[in-house]
Specification:
Keywords: Coiled coil, Nucleus
Number of helices: 3
Helix content: over 70%
Largest sheet: none
Structural class: mainly alpha
Shape: elongated
Radius of gyration: 24 Å
Low-confidence stretches: none
Strand content: under 5%
GO cellular component, one term: nucleus
Subcellular location: Nucleus
GO molecular function: transcription coactivator activity
Order of helices and strands: HHH
Family: Belongs to the AMY1 family.
Length: about 90
Amino acid sequence: MSNYKPNDSKREEFRRYLERAGVLDALTKVLVMLYEEPEKPDDALEYIRKHLGGITDVTLKVESLEKTLEDVKAENRELKTKLAKLEISGDE
């Protein structure tokens, strides 16, 4: 019985790792897409491979766009600060 606990905690740790990495979400989405297919494909594994790659590409694109958005927000804050300083020095 004492050996069961470490295995259980390792499983839980691995599950949290998969969740943090987005694996569980991606697999769930692909499996839901397969479930909702009106015509089930002959090769379900190939369907999953094909669509999982697409989800991964979209995820990478979203992450890239989020990074770009943060960069633009930072630049916007910087430019607003510079503008405010110019307006103050122009009033003097």
